[in-house]
Amino acid sequence: MTESNRLRIAIQKSGRLSTDSQQLLKSCGIKFSINEQRLIAHADNMPIDLLRVRDDDIPGLVMDGVVDLGIIGENVLEEEQIERQTLNKPAEFVKLRQLDFGACRLSLAVPSEFSYADASSLEGLRIATSYPNLLRRFMQQKGISYRDCMLKGSVEVAPRAGLADGICDLVSTGATLEANGLYETEVIYRSMACVIQSTQTQTPSKQALIDRILSRVNGVIRARE
Ligand code: PRT
Ligand code: ZN
User: Which whole-number Å values give the CA distances from 86 to 79, 157, 192, 213, in the listed order?
Assistant: First the structure.
């Protein structure tokens, strides 16, 4: 029995989006306390369960209809959507709204000694990334062929380690690139956190609760602007 009368919201367990996600839900009047050992936190004052998971799992949980709502970076969402479309797996969701945190960009970067004119400077070269689908889409649009170097972490050290010629990685301040002797050449995707809803919802009461939460989210963000 996996159906639930309670609204399920997936948020990142621990990482760059967790504090802001929890804070946003609390500002919307949802009362809960997190037990670090627990996957689920039950709200005290509304029929809502928070699922605390790896951010990478959130798009799939929403697209498979396991949870009703998710708070996730658009970068991870879009990457997963392209991946699922390629594999003919459910890839539908409704983006309810973009949020005001989690800002970053997915960028191409190369070693400081690399002479870069435009993306075609990477023709035939190897690019390390954790976002193979977003990278492929960008390079296909430009008509550039390149070779993959798929890394889930430590992408920024790949050129120095001789594993790749350039990278495609998330950047916010640029300090990590600089510390690794790389410079940013091209932004291929700009991202913020967003709230998404499953297309497989719902009972009218769940939808009413979602509408209420969304209108509070709008109010909270408007007040912060
Ligand atoms: O454990 P889990 O899988 O849940 O977390 P994670 O390690 O995959 O993700 P996490 O917590 O690092 O990031 C979650 C989300 O935060 C990302 O998917 C983005 O939507 C958003 N975000 C915003 C960022 C950054 N800014 C960011 N700067 N995610 C990662 N970075 C990393 C980047 O990969 C690089 O290593 O920070 C470094 C660069 O930062 P600067 O400031 O030096 O440029
Ligand atoms: Zn992750």
Answer: 11, 29, 24, 33
